[in-house]
Specification:
six-stranded mixed β-barrel; 23 strands; 52% helix; alpha+beta; six-stranded mixed beta barrel
């Protein structure tokens, strides 16, 4: 009964001051909304990216070594077969899978679709059911069967009888045996699955690491027990195969952890920390407002005390007002969070979002609602308890005397001052952190790449083995593609490579240097490799620092050569001229490559491939089925996309051309994660600074209103405007200065943390901190000066008459 009465009284009290009530509710709604939005993203991308049944029982196996980064696709085939044999009793089912380049020939022409080759236990391990037909039968793989995704089935015309019909993929005929349920596109946006069939040589390899292995733990088997079992298996593999497995282990992780992007948890942790700062500022503002509300209600509390109400009863009276604000703020925060999540989800390019597990499931759900409700309850404690205790502790006489003087107790004044210092410091940390992230993203997006990305159009093709089975046929296609594109009007030059910068792909090779000790086969040094055409460096604008580039005369019957990057030269031939030196990239049996030139470094990917040791080999000497063409145009590259497609279609009407776009777009898409970091941090800084400014304004306005009588008396006794400014604005200056000093120190530590998180993309800059101090300090002084102007305009006679 008392709770209901307190709630009604709190609601009436808020209605009497609708402006103040609205400010409190909006302040809390913003703080709760941004935290709910980030929690929703964190929950879907880190905690629950997959919707498979009992996903917590699913694990991913990865091979480890001393120098290689932990990868989800690095199990050698021969090791996989031993894993499968040892899995009995540990796994209920276990499966391997690997990427598959699938060129589909449909009624509307050629189309490249994302494919995956999977072992027969793949779908059973995931516990998914087909929407039509069946999945692969356990046991012997069927090399002519495919399962297609619902999205591909719809693009093919939603034929209800598609099961049993043929599909032409990579020049071969496959039979559709099943259609996956809507929404299933694991892994990484796959739309067609074939069975994993390995030749005897492939199955025996322990040096080619490209398989992903997932398993479902058997009932009663824990993750730690599985890890211990595979530690024993890894030890046995090392003992039996010392040349290939020495130093290599097997790590068992949950599927969620294993397939998570390396930087996602840290980035989302940064966002959650920034969102917490916003909420902290909101709590500080609300605490100040609740202190003001408590001061205004001192007479009411004194009356309750006179009527025999205990202090606890008076505290509950004030807490009920905070609870009403919290409930209203929580309800209003949900549409704010929903809008923020929707904006984040829809802004992600379609070409990228399909590779981010859980992205399409972003949205409000019961867990986000429960989180927001729990945070709202905690908020009541954060911003209401201390003000309620402060406001309810005075005796009747003291309360009435304070009310007559229009002042505050020393403790309350100090408390409000401390709160102002906290929100100024938090606002500066958010502002500087956002500036660091924005500067880092801008540098990578618009700054030097090591080559000239302007006026470059890129196109990708993947030649299927049926029509391009050997090096000669692949060379013929590459030559024809360059010739046809170069002949188009408005084209300055054309080049090819198996991998272009900023395209999301990469080729890594083990390195051996002639004349030096053979590398450890189980953990050799790694370098990136590119197979490029003669005009590659000219077309990209990648400088040759010494020696020469790839020449047209570097053919299949000439000396195997390579151009290396400056970083490769400095790492492996420090202080020496690398020209004429020889190295081998790949396994034993590959030819020794003679270094004929040194090229400049470039950014391949912002996160872990900036100025990485790289070599460039003639495409004619080592043709690849996967090609990216770069066309330097005289005009806007996007306007040439249609003509480029036509030229390649004329060369081979059955060859799909995909990922057509400018190099600038590729750079933008490759840095989309960093751009999101910058955009979200900028939004948090905006909200945090606005809340901090409004908090300083509210505190100063309230202080001036309480000191009206004192100011009137001082003016009547001869005080000047400068004296009044010193009395009012001087205190704001002191509090702001203390907050800015503390915020600057915290910003330096935050900047170091962000620099480490973003792999050195940005670094702490004293000028940036000074600029943040100046900007925020000016805003705070303006917020404090507005109510001070009102104090300067006071008429002492009117003030004293009203008092």
């Amino acid at each position: 009964m008392n709770l209901l009465l307190d709630t009604r009284l709190a609601f009436r009290s808020l209605v009497k001051r609708p402006g103040a009530a609205l400010v409190m509710i909006l302040t809390l709604a913003v703080g709760l909304g941004v935290n709910a939005a980030i929690f929703g993203v964190l929950d879907r991308l880190v905690l629950r990216p997959f919707v498979f049944p009992d996903v917590d029982r699913m694990v991913l196996l990865s091979e480890t070594s001393k120098s290689e980064e932990l990868d989800s696709s690095n199990v050698a085939p021969a090791n996989w077969f031993e894993v499968r044999r040892e899995a009995k009793g540990i796994f209920e089912s276990v499966a391997a899978f690997s990427g598959w380049n699938a060129n589909l020939i449909g009624a509307d022409g050629p189309e490249r679709v994302l494919g995956t080759r999977v072992s027969t236990e793949f779908f059973r391990s995931l516990r998914v059911e087909p929407a039509a037909g069946r999945f692969f039968l356990p046991g012997t793989p069927d090399p002519d069967a495919v399962v297609i995704a619902d999205s591909l089935w719809r693009r093919l015309g939603t034929d209800p009888g598609i099961v049993g019909k043929p599909l032409s993929i990579n020049g071969r005929s496959y039979q559709v045996v099943g259609v996956a349920r809507p929404g299933f596109n694991f892994p990484e946006g796959s739309e067609v699955w074939s069975t994993l069939v390995l030749s005897p040589d492939e199955a025996a390899s322990r040096t080619d690491h490209y398989l992903s292995v997932l398993g479902r733990l058997a009932p009663g088997v824990s993750l730690s027990a599985a890890a211990a079992r595979f530690e024993v298996l890894a030890a046995g593999l090392r003992a039996r195969n010392p040349e290939t497995n020495a130093g290599r282990g097997i790590r068992v992780r949950t599927l969620t952890e294993g397939l998570q992007d390396e930087g996602t948890p840290s980035i989302l942790g940064l966002w959650q920390a920034a969102a917490a700062f916003v909420l902290l500022i909101a709590w500080v503002n609300l605490a100040n407002l609740m202190l003001a509300r408590g001061s205004e209600r001192r007479r009411d509390l004194a009356v309750l005390e006179a009527l025999g109400a205990s202090r606890g009863r008076r505290v509950l009276t004030l807490l009920s007002e905070g609870a009403v604000v919290a409930i209203a703020g929580a309800l209003l925060s949900l549409p704010i969070a929903a809008l923020a999540i929707r904006l984040m989800r829809d802004a992600m390019p379609a070409t990228i979002r399909k590779f981010i597990y859980g992205w399409d499931q972003l949205g409000l759900d019961g867990r986000t609602f429960a989180f927001t409700l729990g945070l709202a309850v905690f908020s009541v404690l954060a911003f209401s308890v201390w003000p309620a205790l402060r406001s309810s502790g005075s005796g009747i006489g003291g309360a009435l005397r304070q009310d007559r003087r229009g002042g505050l107790g020393i403790g309350a004044q100090r408390g409000r001052s401390a709160l102002v210092i906290v929100e100024v410091a938090a606002g500066l940390v958010l502002l500087v952190s956002a500036a660091l992230c924005v500067r880092g993203a801008t540098r990578l997006l618009d700054g030097p790449q090591g080559y000239d990305p302007d006026h470059l159009l890129t196109l990708r093709v993947t030649l299927d083995e049926a029509r391009y089975p050997d090096d000669a046929s692949r060379r013929a296609f590459a030559r024809g593609a360059v010739a046809r594109l170069a002949a188009q009007p408005g084209v300055a030059s054309v080049a090819e490579a198996n991998v272009m910068p900023a395209t999301g792909n990469n080729n890594v090779f083990p390195l051996a240097i002639e004349g030096e000790a053979p590398p450890d086969k189980s953990d050799p040094p790694q370098v990136d490799g590119r197979m490029v055409s003669p005009r590659y460096f000219e077309t990209l604008g990648l400088p040759i620092l010494s020696g020469r580039g790839i020449a047209a005369s570097d053919g299949p019957d000439t000396l195997p050569v390579a151009v290396i990057s400056r970083s490769m030269a400095e790492r492996y031939w420090p202080g020496r001229d690398p020209l004429g030196k020889r190295f081998r990239a790949g396994e034993e049996g590959q030819p020794w490559l003679t270094v004929v030139g040194v090229a400049g470094d470039h950014i391949h990917h912002w996160f872990n491939r900036r100025n990485y040791p790289t070599f460039f080999e003639p495409l004619e000497q080592h043709p690849r089925p996967r090609l990216t063409l770069a066309v330097r145009t005289l005009g806007e590259p996007e306007s040439f996309a249609r003509e480029a497609r036509k030229a390649l279609r004329a060369l081979d009407p059955y060859q799909p051309v995909y990922d057509v776009g400018s190099m600038r777009r590729s750079i933008s898409e490759s840095t989309i994660g960093l751009q999101y970091v910058a955009a979200v941090m900028a939004a948090f800084a905006f909200f945090g600074v606005i809340l901090a400014i409004s908090g300083v304004y509210a505190v100063m306005a309230y202080r001036v209103s309480l000191r009206r009588q004192e100011i009137g008396v001082r003016v009547a006794l001869g005080a000047t405007k400068r004296d009044v400014l010193g009395l009012t604005l001087g205190q704001a200056l002191r509090l702001t200065a203390l907050g800015l000093v503390g915020g600057a120190i915290l910003s330096a530590f935050a900047g170091r943390a962000i620099s480490g998180l973003l792999r050195g993309v940005t670094e702490v800059d004293p000028k940036l901190i000074v600029g943040g101090v100046a900007l925020l300090g000016a805003a705070m002084l303006l917020a404090a000066f507005i109510p001070t102007r009102r104090a300067l305009a006071l008429d002492p006679a009117e003030v004293l008459r009203n008092e």
